[in-house]
Amino acid sequence: MIKFPVTSLRNTIFFRLLITYVLVIFPIILLGFYLYYWSYNNASEDISRATVTQLNYYLEDLNREIEWMELQQHDLLEDNELNKLGVTWELMSSVEQRESLTYLLHRLTSFKNSSSYIQDIKIHIDAIGKTISAQNAVVDLDRQHYEKLSSSMSKYRERLTYLNSSLHLIAAKYGGKKGQAPLYIIQINLDSNKLSDSLQQISLYDNSGAFLFSDTTGFRVMNHEYAKPIMQSYLMQTKEARNSTSLLNNSGTMYHIDSVYSPKLKLTIVTYLPEETVKRPLHFFYQWAWLFALACLIAIIVVTYFTYRFIHKPLLLLVQSFRRMEEGELDIPIDHDNRDEFGFLYTRFNQMLVKLKMLIDQDYKQKMMMQRSELKQLQSQINPHFLYNSFFILNSLAKVSDVDRIEQFTVMLGEYFRFITRNGDDLVTLHEETKHSRVYTEIQQLRFSRRLHVQFDELPEACASIKVPRLIIQPIIENAYEHSLEKKSENGLLVVSFDKQEQGITIMIEDNGEHLSNEKLEELQQSLEKVNEMREMTGMINIHRRLQLTFGEGSGLKLERSVMGGLKVTICIHLNENDQG
């Protein structure tokens, strides 16, 4: 039968803890108030971050919509039928005139229906004295309005023009003579009601709202009429459009204000939220803060007593021993004569120290190394620079409407990301690893096709099913592009070749870069020869160590100067009978 020891209260640590915990109560109360204000500030910041992100998305979407309208407007400006009406109206037959007017009217109607932000599209043609409207068909030209549009274009040259309480996109076609009035003007009227409705979508809280305005044109639009006094107060206190988060006092009510300015549109969008709405979820916390402090005082007194009597002292000894073990001190066992549960733990702890010393070299270090390598591998799988370049290539292909190459590129990009993001074992077949590396070089060829060339040999069929760690070839190829080939203005060459041997395979990656000095090459060679197992490993050192851990001594990387002048990296894989096939 186990007898529990009786702990004497002669030790004064109990009283020290009691006094300490009582003194802790006051900071806890202060902490409660601090947490209240911290929670309020944090909630405000979270709301601001979310709101600013939403406002940026809104302005970006609106800008993309305007850009699309401008592209369609420019395309319409160069329309052959429209040019014929503006230049050769008198020479056209009545049938040709009607056909051209009908064609343009259908095109304007289709254009208008393509965007909910468009209220009407008008083409004012001076030569025929007519205005073609998607909403009103063909009407007589309003000469005064035409001259006002022409004057506003030459005066302001703004991307968005504010006329008649709404925004417009205006573009004109001029003749060959300097100073001559435009042949015709294309006017796109933006629907203020639709803009107001779109602002309603970003007002997610009670009594919140949004408004959109321009400092340069005087344009104003809001999602509700009751937002008008708040907008007026904001405009009186804000001297210029800017990105900001602030508090606004309007008729004694404080509002949380977030604003984002778009330099492309020269528009500012502002959202407001009553400060009381931000504080409302925290009222409950404030009321219970004092009760929490009182409960803490009672609980601390009780727990202090029993913790000290039954747990604190023996547990402290065990914790200190564990800390020494964490610091690497494995030769200091716990001396004790306890026969209770802690005595059992002390005995097992001493036995664990002995076993740990035996296993640490053969198991612990290796596992930690594999975990560190795996972590660095996952962290470096998606290169932001590569991802940016990929989208840049897609953008370039889309601009020239090269559908076939877009399809080819997206398939290759999908294969690339599928390989590096899939879950599963760290080992893959050499065929899969080589295929992934080939896809990567093909993607890079789309970027550097004019100045770089890749010679990628075929993998010997007998080596296709060999299991290797993932990402041992592609990072080396990526390193060659980043540090050597990207710096060449022409005639860059990357060669990937394979050599099947009796006891393994070697993979050679070499380039003709011109910036590899002898000192740099020697530094790289020494970094592979003197690997410190406890330091962070990246790049080629990571690959070299993973190959050694997987295939043993004789495997890894070998660095030397290529016959082409650049760096040659040789991947050596030494196989035993279990690794074959």
UniProtKB/TrEMBL annotation:
SUPFAM superfamilies: ATPase domain of HSP90 chaperone/DNA topoisomerase II/histidine kinase (SSF55874), HAMP domain-like (SSF158472). It is a multi-pass membrane protein. InterPro entries: Bact_2-comp_sensor_kinase, HAMP_dom, HATPase_C_sf, Sig_transdc_His_kin_internal. Keywords: Cell membrane, Kinase, Membrane, Phosphoprotein, Transferase, Transmembrane, Transmembrane helix. It is found in: Cell membrane. The chain crosses the membrane at residues 12-38, 288-308. It is an enzyme of class 2 (transferase). Its EC number is 2.7.13.3. This is Sensor histidine kinase. Its main location: membrane. PROSITE patterns: HAMP. Pfam families: HAMP, His_kinase. It comes from the Bacteria. Residues 309-361 form the HAMP domain. One of its GO terms (molecular function) is protein histidine kinase activity.
